[in-house]
Amino acid sequence: MIAIIHRLGLVAALAFLFVSSVSAQAVDKEQKREVLAAIEQVLTRRAFVPGVDFSKWPEYLAKRRESMDSAETARSFALNVNRTLREFGVSHCRVEFGSEDTPLGLVAQTPSEKSAVSTIEWMDNDTAVLRIRTFGKEYLRTEAERLVDEARNGTRLILDLRSNGGGLVDNLQHLLGLLLPPETAVGTFVTRRTASAFESATGGDPTDLAAIANWTRSKLRTRGLGPKPYEGKIAVVVNRGTGSASEMAAAALRDVLRSPVIGTPTAGAVLGSTFATLPHGFRLQYPAQDYVTIKGQRLEGHPVVPDVEVRVRGFGSQDPALAKAAEVLGGGGFRYN
Questions:
Q1: Residues β-bridged to residue 190
Q2: What is the distance between the alpha carbons of residues 256 and 314, in angstroms, rounded to a whole number?
Q3: I need a labelling partner for 282 at 20 to 30 A (CA). Which of 8, 102, 154, 217 fits?
Q4: Residues of CATH 3.90.226.10 domain(s) within the chain?
Q5: Which CATH code, of 3.90.226.10, 3.30.70.3400, 3.30.980.10, 1.10.569.10, is assigned to 111-329?
Q6: Alpha carbon of 26 to those of 32, 104, 138: distances in Å?
Q7: For 56-69, b where at least 16 C-beta lie within 10 A, e where not — what string?
Q8: pLDDT of 246-298, one tens digit each?
Q9: What Rg do the C-alpha atoms of the chain give, in angstroms?
Q10: How far apart are CA 108 and CA 15, in angstroms?
Q11: Phi and psi for 105 in degrees, rounded to 5?
Q12: What are the tens digits of pLDDT across the range 192-230?
């Protein structure tokens, strides 16, 4: 056991040293100019959030030109770029340096951490707690299916999405497919093309997301094939660290199943994004789609607000949010409106 601990500690240490050495790499004036020019091209040609003018990038950049010029390492340069990108006031818009697996500022997970992405615990004979820590690449579909199948031994399921920052839409659809009927519509992604088509066809406002979502037939749906969905009662537990795809999951379960949401307001950071490769080892995450729930609610900038707010922290059997969720599912005086 000690040898295993030492080995895992060595992996984490080597990952930290790798990221630290990479992020300390020097960048010169010409390299920075090329990276900034590439960012401008991506933002003005590909990025899309209704009502956001990405052509203002040079204007925002001018405000930070001095600090940008003084940055000598990849890390300090990326930090300055990200401060500028925050001027747009949207999520999912940032620069990273390094490989996709070890982006700037992050240490690679150890094998033990990766294997614990999805877990299940039982509060009593009828109430299971399914925790999903991420919808990223570490999410294992077979494991999620196995755990939901185990939860069928009870009649109540608490889906714990606290501190789940999101991940891949495909993985979100997979989990929702285990909990909702096949082909259930849960929301709408609005792209530049969708907004333009809506304006051309109706003459409507291309920034009116609710109207666009109601107009288009293109919906985000659960998968058509897969295991029979869970049939018991479901509650969802969230916090400020619940972001992106996990916010979509909470909203979908509340909209479709009337599942109560317990905890604290979520991050309110829900945009469909992708990555563009930049020169000299940098890459840019940028938003290309906005999202509206099936009931017409935009989640970007509008956190999922719990039906029952629980701010007190706890662990295990002393976790107040889980205790409240179990109480709600058991009919403890709470009525979902």
A1: 290
A2: 29
A3: 8
A4: 111-329
A5: 3.90.226.10
A6: 10, 14, 31
A7: ebeeebeeeeeebe
A8: 999 999 999 999 999 999 999 999 999 999 999 999 999 999 999 999 999 99
A9: 22
A10: 6
A11: 85, 0
A12: 999 999 999 999 999 999 999 999 999 999 987 778 899
Q: Is 250 exposed, middle or buried (0-12, 13-18, 19+ CB in 10 A)?
A: buried
d(CA 287, CA 302): 17
The amino acid occupying position 74 is A
- Quote the pTM value: 0.85
